[in-house]
Amino acid sequence: MRKQKGFSLIELLIVVAIILIIAAIAIPNLLRARMAANESAAASSVRTINTAEVSYITAYPQTGYAATIANLGGASPCTAAVATACLIDNNLATATAAPGKSGFLFAANANGAAAYEAAAWPVTLNSTGTKTFCSVEDAVIRVSPGTAADPGYAGCQALLGIAN
Description:
The chain has 164 residues and is an alpha+beta fold.
């Protein structure tokens, strides 16, 4: 009788089946964790935009709040001015079209000289995130679950805030 070297086909199939079962359990959890991380980063970015808007109106009181999110950023090397205040990272200031930053799109719009709205919404609902975040000049981060659009100033004011 010969001594067999290596693994049989059945042993290899069992190992592959075990790996597939483990992957089927782990991958959905990984995707949920990634969405949660994206949402956390989006809420943090909205908070950063809030801080930048306050800094902007302090630096340029004659202008009021920044008209767009692009006015808060600026390409490197950045020179502070009304159009490019250099208050936020340019990656955030330009995350207004797909694919966005961490799977989210961002906007900051002045609602007159005395008010603004900042928002973050997922590029692909239920894939990159499940919530839209927004804030107005009171700096309360508000959330709208199950939406993927900028709620606008009035829509943001109507939403409930999240715990800080």
